[in-house]
Amino acid sequence: MAVLCAAIYLEWRRWPVNLENMDDGDVLQALGDLSEGSVNIYLWHVSGFRAWLAEHSLTLLDVTKSVIRTYCEKMKKNRHWSASTINTALAALTRFFDGLIESGLMDENPSRGALGDKRARRSFSRAPKRLPVILFEDEERRFLEVTQVLGLDVPLPFQTLRARQIARLLYFTGLREHEAIQLRVTDLHLDSDAPALRVIGKGNREREVPLGPIIQQEMLLFLEAREAFLRVQKRCAGLPALVFCDAMGGAFSRGGVYYIVSTIFAELGLVKRNKGPHVLRHTFATRQFRAGVPAAVVKTWLGHSTLAVTLSVYEHVAEASGSARPV
């Protein structure tokens, strides 16, 4: 068995034989595990860079820091790329070349430090700093009123209940939209003394997010309504038990969640720079910091890879400390 595993590993390390014959599958293998959102963006950047190299009669083995810098300068000048787009392109290329090094196809990563000098950082790397877009206290109150699911005189149609509940789950847990739509019934632990949900986020990292009493009660009742709805449909037997599914048992799209949240914001008359689900994630994080939850705990609940990532976004509200239960 060990010999077989070693043979498979060595075969992987020889992939692909010719760098110039790489297809999208090879590029994806070099990029490794990425979130659904990142994989398409990174693949687009790597493919664009390889096409630019071909136009200039260059190969991947010809790439140096100078070539990377020239590419970024051309993209900034000719395609009007912003600092943020340049940084994303560099992140994609860095991960791609790291994958080639790990597979034994290259010896060093030319994108690391390519824009590391002072002049380059000033030109490319400093995207304008903006505070995260959140709901303010009065807006939060109105959001909770317009999405109310408990204590109503008339029961909601299931489609309306489902839309409100997914928005409220994002608000009360800080989940990313793709994490919410991939959530399965078995990921919810609602009957324990410490109710929580488990989710797999970016980088294939699994985490546990505690649930407060309000969202716990709402989710218990939602699952009952969900079962009744699907029982009537009779078309989803045998499919994975997604928490937020359509009549066929299929998952929502990320665009569908964006539409739900942006429609609620429009109903509230909110004028924001961003109007999507991430506003609810930022609102959740900000609320925890203002309640005194330690930064390391918030980092875990949000699923950030490092505490530095959390503090880089929420440093303006991260000084408080206190009890560590969501509010």
- The helix/strand series, from N terminus to C terminus, equals HHHHHHHHHEEEHHHHH
* Count of alpha and pi helical runs: 14
The residue-averaged pLDDT reads: 83
Strand order of the largest sheet: 1-2-3
Q: How would you characterize the largest beta sheet? A: 3 strands, antiparallel
Please state the structural category.
mainly alpha
Keywords:
DNA-binding; DNA binding; DNA integration; elongated; hpI Integrase, Chain A; mainly alpha; 327 residues; DNA polymerase, domain 1; DNA_brk_join_enz; three-stranded antiparallel β-sheet
Please characterize this protein's 3D structure.
The chain has 14 helices and 3 strands. By secondary structure, it is mainly alpha-helical. The chain folds into 2 domains: 2-125, Tyrosine recombinase, N-terminal domain (DNA polymerase, domain 1, Orthogonal Bundle); 137-317, Intergrase catalytic core (hpI Integrase, Chain A). It has a 3-stranded antiparallel sheet. The protein is elongated, with a radius of gyration of 23 Å. The chain starts with a helix and ends in a 13-residue tail after the last helix.
Quick structural gist:
The chain is mainly α and 327 residues long. The chain has helices at 2-13, 24-31, 36-55, 65-78, 83-102, 118-125, 137-146, 158-173, 177-181, 213-233, 254-268, 278-290, 295-302, 307-314; strands at 188-189, 196-200, 206-210. The protein has 14 helices and 3 strands.
Topology diagram in text:
Layout: H1 2-13, H2 24-31, H3 36-55, H4 65-78, H5 83-102, H6 118-125, H7 137-146, H8 158-173, H9 177-181, E1 188-189, E2 196-200, E3 206-210, H10 213-233, H11 254-268, H12 278-290, H13 295-302, H14 307-314
Antiparallel strand pairs: 1-2, 2-3
